[in-house]
Amino acid sequence: MNSTTSDAGVVDVIGVGAGFTGLYLSYRLASAGWTFAGFEAGPSVGGTWFWNTYPGARCDVESIYYSYSFDEALQQEWTWSQRFAPQAEILGYLEHVADRFDLRKHFTFNTRVLGATWNEGDRLWEVRLDNGETRRCRYLISGAGGLSTPKEFDVPGLENFTGLRVSTSRWNISLDDLAGKRVAVIGTGSSGVQAIPLIAEVAEHLTVFQRTPNYVMPARNAELTPEQVAAVKQDYAAIREECRHSPGGIPDRPVTDRAFDVSDEERRRRYEQAYERSGFLGVGAEFVDLLTDAEANRTASEFIHDKIREIVKDPATAELLVPKYHPLGAKRSVFGTDYYETYNRPNVSLVSLRDEPIETMTENAIVTSAGSYDVDAIVLAIGFDAFTGPLYGLNLTGASGRKLQEVWRDGIRSYLGIMAADFPNFFMVAGPLSPALASNVVVSIEQAVDWIADLLEHARDTKATTIEATVEAEREWVEITEWTVAQTLYATTDSWYRGSNIEGKPNTFMGYVGGVGKYRRMCTEIAKRGYPGVEIDGETPSRTIGPIHQKIA
């Protein structure tokens, strides 16, 4: 346990999680003189990248961007091996950061937060841990990743199955354990897409049970050459600045023309170029209206449809794989390696659960409405209870005595995705209604941690003891996020972006999609104006942020 927490049982800040957020949070706050105690459910640092060890697990943001920018020496000394680093390399990077800056001392591992209650009288959070302790802090900050709480298994009859069963979100076997077996993979989101080609190589037979076909782009992963690494390191300062002010947190090539401003031939040429470069790195990078105009999007969607039909030899299988139910980019697109090619293997078959849903399972088979499939092992790639799941798991009780899940029962409400009314001195990094949902999350994490740290220092300078979002500012931010997403094709589709994958979850789009650059500029302006929308010891300079949103380009 951190030696700085031994005073009177009260620490300045408790942080939850030791992944990308928790490590930077501990570094930033400890450097500013705050006492900090972090708690991590796992046995070491890494967060999401500690748990996600399924075959093929890797990030779908290029490694040179999916990394910290806060320390120049760190950037220069660490060298990524591939464009898209595998899980083990990302975990190794986080372990290196923890050791380089001596951050492990700030954390207690194998310790989960069971609940936290705001004590109005003492103006402190009382945090209950699964080791039986209760810790008290002035500020409580969640660094729990948005995709860190696995979705509950919702497969009918799963309890009947007696064969090998494993989840991609909590992988605990070797790939060799699937060798020579009849394997079923349920789910074709990011985890399933990455794992399926590798499982197919070892399985006697692989049956993929697809719920909704997705757009899978070729990752074009490759080893980084020494020349590429040197060029990036030489220009890191400019690259990082471009990421911070881009729409998606990666260097974006600005475009102003629309899909129908050019000829059919020119449009297809651009799509081919994008596809060969690395899929579509960001939908909207080729034409400005691909995520706002359905007809423009259709030109890109049909381009990908044609690619699938070219790759997959069996026409019936190809049609099942064609994503016809949502526009390109309206749900999270996925980067994969040899995903569609895998369906050309003789030992791989595809079942569409839209056409034949699972009715039950027996001890050795999956039974759909159309037949029975004998299997020895089941791989569940069914996703996460995104963004709200990790927060609800903290069992927060606010100033009114209500839990966060009660306050958000009819829909998520937050201020900037960072604060929530009725929960003083509580902050979320990359939380619901922040840009984290649709961006390079490391860029969003660094920005949010810096903004929160500056706010805490502002309160310390004025000797304030409570910080809380106003209900009015929270309501206005919800209106801003909803208006912003309504201008896009995100608004047309049910997905985990809206919580549609969790039964009973309110239908709220869980991110701000106006771009990380615009969001950063808004947050900077809010800080400059003395934090309108934030009550500091009951006072706020302004309760409205609408004009700021309208002003910032």
From TrEMBL:
<dbReference type="InterPro" id="IPR050775">
    <property type="entry name" value="FAD-binding_Monooxygenases"/>
</dbReference>
<dbReference type="Pfam" id="PF07992">
    <property type="entry name" value="Pyr_redox_2"/>
</dbReference>
<keyword id="KW-0503">Monooxygenase</keyword>
<dbReference type="InterPro" id="IPR023753">
    <property type="entry name" value="FAD/NAD-binding_dom"/>
</dbReference>
<keyword id="KW-0560">Oxidoreductase</keyword>
<keyword id="KW-0521">NADP</keyword>
<keyword id="KW-0285">Flavoprotein</keyword>
<keyword id="KW-0274">FAD</keyword>
<dbReference type="GO" id="GO:0033776">
    <property type="term" value="F:phenylacetone monooxygenase activity"/>
</dbReference>
<feature type="domain" description="FAD/NAD(P)-binding">
    <location>
        <begin position="12"/>
        <end position="225"/>
    </location>
</feature>
<comment type="similarity">
    <text>Belongs to the FAD-binding monooxygenase family.</text>
</comment>
<dbReference type="InterPro" id="IPR036188">
    <property type="entry name" value="FAD/NAD-bd_sf"/>
</dbReference>
<protein>
    <submittedName>
        <fullName>Phenylacetone monooxygenase</fullName>
        <ecNumber>1.14.13.92</ecNumber>
    </submittedName>
</protein>
